[in-house]
Amino acid sequence: MEDSAKVAVLVSGGGTNLQALIDKIREGRLEEAKIVKVISSRPDAFALERARKAGIDTAVAAEQDEVLKELKASGADIVVLAGYMKVLPPEIIESYRNRIINIHPSLIPKYCGKGFYGMRVHRAVIEAGEKESGATVHYVDEGVDTGKIILQRRVPVIEGDTPETLAARVLETEHEILAEGLKEVIKNIKKDEGGK
Ligand code: GAR
Protein backbone atom coordinates (compact mmCIF):
# COMPACT_ATOMS: atom_id res chain seq x y z
CA MET A 1 0.00 0.00 0.00
CA GLU A 2 1.28 3.46 -0.87
CA ASP A 3 1.34 6.36 1.59
CA SER A 4 -2.39 7.01 1.14
CA ALA A 5 -4.64 3.96 1.06
CA LYS A 6 -6.77 3.81 -2.07
CA VAL A 7 -10.39 3.64 -0.99
CA ALA A 8 -13.44 2.72 -3.06
CA VAL A 9 -16.76 3.82 -1.55
CA LEU A 10 -19.95 1.89 -2.30
CA VAL A 11 -23.20 3.86 -2.00
CA SER A 12 -26.92 3.63 -2.73
CA GLY A 13 -28.41 6.86 -1.43
CA GLY A 14 -27.81 10.36 -0.16
CA GLY A 15 -24.13 9.93 0.56
CA THR A 16 -23.69 12.02 3.72
CA ASN A 17 -21.18 9.46 5.02
CA LEU A 18 -19.30 9.71 1.73
CA GLN A 19 -19.37 13.50 2.07
CA ALA A 20 -17.95 13.27 5.58
CA LEU A 21 -14.99 11.28 4.23
CA ILE A 22 -14.49 13.71 1.34
CA ASP A 23 -14.54 16.68 3.72
CA LYS A 24 -12.17 15.11 6.22
CA ILE A 25 -9.66 14.19 3.50
CA ARG A 26 -9.89 17.71 2.09
CA GLU A 27 -9.36 19.24 5.53
CA GLY A 28 -6.27 17.09 6.10
CA ARG A 29 -7.91 15.11 8.90
CA LEU A 30 -7.81 11.81 7.02
CA GLU A 31 -4.60 12.12 5.08
CA GLU A 32 -3.98 8.39 5.10
CA ALA A 33 -6.88 7.84 2.65
CA LYS A 34 -7.59 8.77 -0.95
CA ILE A 35 -10.98 8.02 -2.52
CA VAL A 36 -10.29 6.53 -5.94
CA LYS A 37 -13.82 5.60 -6.93
CA VAL A 38 -17.44 5.86 -5.85
CA ILE A 39 -19.64 3.00 -7.03
CA SER A 40 -23.40 3.27 -6.72
CA SER A 41 -25.99 0.51 -6.92
CA ARG A 42 -28.48 3.08 -8.22
CA PRO A 43 -28.11 5.62 -11.02
CA ASP A 44 -30.16 8.25 -9.13
CA ALA A 45 -28.18 8.21 -5.87
CA PHE A 46 -27.34 11.75 -4.77
CA ALA A 47 -24.02 10.36 -3.53
CA LEU A 48 -22.92 10.29 -7.19
CA GLU A 49 -23.40 14.07 -7.41
CA ARG A 50 -21.29 14.54 -4.32
CA ALA A 51 -18.53 12.40 -5.81
CA ARG A 52 -18.57 14.21 -9.16
CA LYS A 53 -18.46 17.56 -7.41
CA ALA A 54 -15.37 16.40 -5.54
CA GLY A 55 -13.76 15.25 -8.81
CA ILE A 56 -13.93 11.57 -7.90
CA ASP A 57 -14.37 8.90 -10.55
CA THR A 58 -17.86 7.32 -10.41
CA ALA A 59 -19.57 4.19 -11.66
CA VAL A 60 -23.06 2.73 -11.47
CA ALA A 61 -23.05 -1.01 -10.95
CA ALA A 62 -26.33 -2.74 -10.24
CA GLU A 63 -24.98 -6.24 -10.86
CA GLN A 64 -22.42 -7.70 -8.49
CA ASP A 65 -20.01 -8.90 -11.17
CA GLU A 66 -19.85 -5.30 -12.39
CA VAL A 67 -19.03 -4.18 -8.83
CA LEU A 68 -16.05 -6.54 -8.66
CA LYS A 69 -14.88 -5.39 -12.09
CA GLU A 70 -15.08 -1.73 -11.06
CA LEU A 71 -13.31 -2.42 -7.76
CA LYS A 72 -10.47 -4.23 -9.51
CA ALA A 73 -10.15 -1.49 -12.14
CA SER A 74 -9.99 1.17 -9.42
CA GLY A 75 -6.98 -0.45 -7.76
CA ALA A 76 -8.64 0.06 -4.36
CA ASP A 77 -6.90 -1.29 -1.25
CA ILE A 78 -9.99 -0.83 0.92
CA VAL A 79 -13.74 -0.82 0.28
CA VAL A 80 -16.06 1.32 2.41
CA LEU A 81 -19.80 0.61 2.39
CA ALA A 82 -21.40 3.97 3.12
CA GLY A 83 -25.16 3.53 2.94
CA TYR A 84 -24.80 0.64 0.51
CA MET A 85 -28.08 -1.27 0.51
CA LYS A 86 -26.99 -4.49 -1.16
CA VAL A 87 -25.34 -7.59 0.26
CA LEU A 88 -21.97 -8.30 -1.32
CA PRO A 89 -21.41 -11.80 -2.76
CA PRO A 90 -18.78 -14.12 -1.22
CA GLU A 91 -16.49 -13.60 -4.21
CA ILE A 92 -16.04 -9.91 -3.38
CA ILE A 93 -15.69 -10.56 0.37
CA GLU A 94 -12.99 -13.13 -0.39
CA SER A 95 -11.11 -10.77 -2.73
CA TYR A 96 -11.01 -8.02 -0.08
CA ARG A 97 -10.95 -10.05 3.16
CA ASN A 98 -10.55 -7.71 6.18
CA ARG A 99 -10.47 -4.76 3.80
CA ILE A 100 -14.20 -4.06 3.54
CA ILE A 101 -15.91 -2.01 6.23
CA ASN A 102 -19.51 -0.95 6.74
CA ILE A 103 -21.22 1.77 8.75
CA HIS A 104 -24.44 0.68 10.42
CA PRO A 105 -26.89 2.99 12.26
CA SER A 106 -27.36 0.96 15.45
CA LEU A 107 -25.44 -0.64 18.29
CA ILE A 108 -24.76 -4.02 16.67
CA PRO A 109 -25.86 -6.74 17.60
CA LYS A 110 -29.06 -4.80 18.22
CA TYR A 111 -31.22 -3.75 15.26
CA CYS A 112 -29.06 -5.21 12.52
CA GLY A 113 -29.18 -8.01 10.00
CA LYS A 114 -31.75 -8.69 7.32
CA GLY A 115 -34.50 -6.07 7.14
CA PHE A 116 -32.73 -3.59 9.42
CA TYR A 117 -31.37 -0.80 7.29
CA GLY A 118 -31.76 2.95 7.03
CA MET A 119 -34.89 4.44 8.58
CA ARG A 120 -36.26 0.98 9.49
CA VAL A 121 -33.58 0.72 12.15
CA HIS A 122 -34.56 3.98 13.82
CA ARG A 123 -38.27 3.20 13.62
CA ALA A 124 -37.68 -0.12 15.40
CA VAL A 125 -35.50 1.51 18.08
CA ILE A 126 -38.22 4.08 18.85
CA GLU A 127 -41.03 1.53 18.79
CA ALA A 128 -39.11 -0.61 21.30
CA GLY A 129 -38.81 2.38 23.65
CA GLU A 130 -35.00 2.24 23.74
CA LYS A 131 -33.23 4.96 25.71
CA GLU A 132 -30.14 4.80 23.55
CA SER A 133 -29.03 3.83 20.10
CA GLY A 134 -25.78 4.40 18.27
CA ALA A 135 -23.63 3.56 15.32
CA THR A 136 -21.15 0.81 14.49
CA VAL A 137 -18.27 0.44 12.06
CA HIS A 138 -17.49 -3.19 11.36
CA TYR A 139 -15.68 -5.47 8.95
CA VAL A 140 -17.87 -7.07 6.33
CA ASP A 141 -17.97 -10.85 6.15
CA GLU A 142 -20.35 -13.24 4.38
CA GLY A 143 -23.21 -12.54 6.81
CA VAL A 144 -25.39 -9.43 7.12
CA ASP A 145 -23.85 -7.10 9.75
CA THR A 146 -22.01 -10.02 11.37
CA GLY A 147 -18.37 -9.02 10.82
CA LYS A 148 -15.98 -8.04 13.61
CA ILE A 149 -16.75 -4.68 15.22
CA ILE A 150 -14.10 -2.00 14.76
CA LEU A 151 -15.74 0.90 16.56
CA GLN A 152 -19.06 1.66 18.19
CA ARG A 153 -20.50 4.83 19.74
CA ARG A 154 -23.66 5.41 21.73
CA VAL A 155 -26.24 8.10 20.90
CA PRO A 156 -29.11 8.99 23.25
CA VAL A 157 -32.73 8.61 22.24
CA ILE A 158 -34.48 11.77 23.40
CA GLU A 159 -38.09 12.07 24.57
CA GLY A 160 -40.26 12.95 21.56
CA ASP A 161 -37.77 11.66 18.99
CA THR A 162 -39.17 10.56 15.65
CA PRO A 163 -37.28 8.11 13.43
CA GLU A 164 -36.13 11.15 11.46
CA THR A 165 -34.79 13.17 14.41
CA LEU A 166 -33.03 10.10 15.80
CA ALA A 167 -31.58 9.29 12.36
CA ALA A 168 -30.16 12.80 12.09
CA ARG A 169 -28.47 12.52 15.52
CA VAL A 170 -27.08 9.06 14.75
CA LEU A 171 -25.81 10.25 11.35
CA GLU A 172 -23.61 12.90 12.99
CA THR A 173 -21.96 10.15 15.00
CA GLU A 174 -21.68 7.92 11.94
CA HIS A 175 -19.73 10.65 10.16
CA GLU A 176 -17.19 10.74 12.98
CA ILE A 177 -16.73 7.02 13.57
CA LEU A 178 -16.63 6.03 9.91
CA ALA A 179 -13.49 8.13 9.45
CA GLU A 180 -12.02 6.90 12.74
CA GLY A 181 -12.76 3.27 11.82
CA LEU A 182 -11.19 3.74 8.40
CA LYS A 183 -8.04 5.18 10.01
CA GLU A 184 -7.87 2.17 12.29
CA VAL A 185 -8.17 -0.29 9.39
CA ILE A 186 -5.48 1.52 7.38
CA LYS A 187 -3.19 1.48 10.42
CA ASN A 188 -3.72 -2.27 10.87
CA ILE A 189 -3.07 -3.06 7.20
CA LYS A 190 0.12 -1.01 7.26
CA LYS A 191 1.23 -2.75 10.44
CA ASP A 192 0.61 -6.18 8.85
CA GLU A 193 2.46 -5.19 5.69
CA GLY A 194 5.36 -3.88 7.73
CA GLY A 195 5.58 -7.18 9.56
CA LYS A 196 5.94 -9.23 6.37
C1 GAR B 1 -26.73 5.62 7.06
O1 GAR B 1 -27.47 5.84 8.23
C2 GAR B 1 -26.09 4.24 7.10
O2 GAR B 1 -25.64 3.87 8.37
C3 GAR B 1 -27.25 3.38 6.69
O3 GAR B 1 -27.86 4.11 5.65
C4 GAR B 1 -27.65 5.50 5.86
C5 GAR B 1 -27.03 6.09 4.61
O4 GAR B 1 -26.89 7.47 4.71
N1 GAR B 1 -26.79 2.09 6.27
C6 GAR B 1 -27.46 0.98 6.52
O5 GAR B 1 -28.53 0.94 7.07
C7 GAR B 1 -26.77 -0.29 6.02
N2 GAR B 1 -27.36 -1.43 6.61
P1 GAR B 1 -25.93 8.29 3.74
O6 GAR B 1 -26.23 7.81 2.31
O7 GAR B 1 -26.35 9.69 3.93
O8 GAR B 1 -24.50 8.03 4.12
TrEMBL record:
<comment type="function">
    <text>Catalyzes the transfer of a formyl group from 10-formyltetrahydrofolate to 5-phospho-ribosyl-glycinamide (GAR), producing 5-phospho-ribosyl-N-formylglycinamide (FGAR) and tetrahydrofolate.</text>
</comment>
<dbReference type="InterPro" id="IPR002376">
    <property type="entry name" value="Formyl_transf_N"/>
</dbReference>
<feature type="domain" description="Formyl transferase N-terminal">
    <location>
        <begin position="6"/>
        <end position="180"/>
    </location>
</feature>
<feature type="binding site">
    <location>
        <position position="102"/>
    </location>
    <ligand>
        <name>(6R)-10-formyltetrahydrofolate</name>
    </ligand>
</feature>
<keyword id="KW-0808">Transferase</keyword>
<feature type="active site" description="Proton donor">
    <location>
        <position position="104"/>
    </location>
</feature>
<comment type="similarity">
    <text>Belongs to the GART family.</text>
</comment>
<dbReference type="InterPro" id="IPR004607">
    <property type="entry name" value="GART"/>
</dbReference>
<dbReference type="InterPro" id="IPR036477">
    <property type="entry name" value="Formyl_transf_N_sf"/>
</dbReference>
<keyword id="KW-0658">Purine biosynthesis</keyword>
<dbReference type="GO" id="GO:0004644">
    <property type="term" value="F:phosphoribosylglycinamide formyltransferase activity"/>
</dbReference>
<dbReference type="InterPro" id="IPR001555">
    <property type="entry name" value="GART_AS"/>
</dbReference>
<feature type="site" description="Raises pKa of active site His">
    <location>
        <position position="145"/>
    </location>
</feature>
<dbReference type="GO" id="GO:0005737">
    <property type="term" value="C:cytoplasm"/>
</dbReference>
<dbReference type="Pfam" id="PF00551">
    <property type="entry name" value="Formyl_trans_N"/>
</dbReference>
<feature type="binding site">
    <location>
        <begin position="15"/>
        <end position="17"/>
    </location>
    <ligand>
        <name>N(1)-(5-phospho-beta-D-ribosyl)glycinamide</name>
    </ligand>
</feature>
<protein>
    <recommendedName>
        <fullName>Phosphoribosylglycinamide formyltransferase</fullName>
        <ecNumber>2.1.2.2</ecNumber>
    </recommendedName>
</protein>
<dbReference type="GO" id="GO:0006189">
    <property type="term" value="P:'de novo' IMP biosynthetic process"/>
</dbReference>
<comment type="pathway">
    <text>Purine metabolism; IMP biosynthesis via de novo pathway; N(2)-formyl-N(1)-(5-phospho-D-ribosyl)glycinamide from N(1)-(5-phospho-D-ribosyl)glycinamide (10-formyl THF route): step 1/1.</text>
</comment>
